[in-house]
Specification:
alpha/beta; binds 6-chloroguanine; 2 domains; Alpha/beta knot; elongated; 7 helices
Length: about 230
Amino acid sequence: MTIEILTVLPELLTSPFEHSIMKRAQERGHLNIKLHQLRKWAINKHGQVDDYQYGGGAGMVIMCEPLANAIDELQQEGKFDEIIFVTPDGKTFDQKDANTLSLKNRILLICGHYKGIDQRIRDIYVTQEISIGDYVLSGGELAAAVIVDAVGRLIPGVLNDETSALTDSFQDNLLAPPVYSRPANFRDLEVPPVLLTGDPKKVDVWRQEQALQRTKQRRPDILKKD
Ligand code: 6GU
């Protein structure tokens, strides 16, 4: 899968993908991340890509031309399966969206800044608008990093048994159960005895119960989903 990202701050998006699972996904050829500096398509030699908004008001808007020219040029290599604008007024991203996107071949993420991007780019090009939660970030880059990570790890072949997505929180609309490692007693807190029985069926039942209990307590809203 190829994920391309259009941004005025590509520097913000290097380190997040240079470690751990994202690094391995790229090394193994499952994931190809391409960062594009939007200023490459600036309207003048000053690198301008934004302007004041019609109607007045504080905050700059990313203009149509740089975005349209960038997208058109990038699509000469072939069409994107999805063109996604990351924005706090988009649909709240969840694990199901991550699963769906992980099956695409080539997607583009557009990072907004300031007051966002000209609405006409959203009307003409954008196929999905995604927010990562109900809070405001300074720009779309960190949100794009979150989306790439959540999607990238689900690409078939990226995770192995050890990092399996099957036991992740949210994968089956349940939060993950508690986990324990050595020592068996830490400051008088014992590891739940069932985990020491060596009986995988009992362990499974216990984990299922714990996951359900945790979800009821913390996130009753996700129990009712799909
Ligand atoms: Cl996608 N962008 C920005 N700037 N803030 C956000 C967001 C995106 N999602 C949540 N907050």
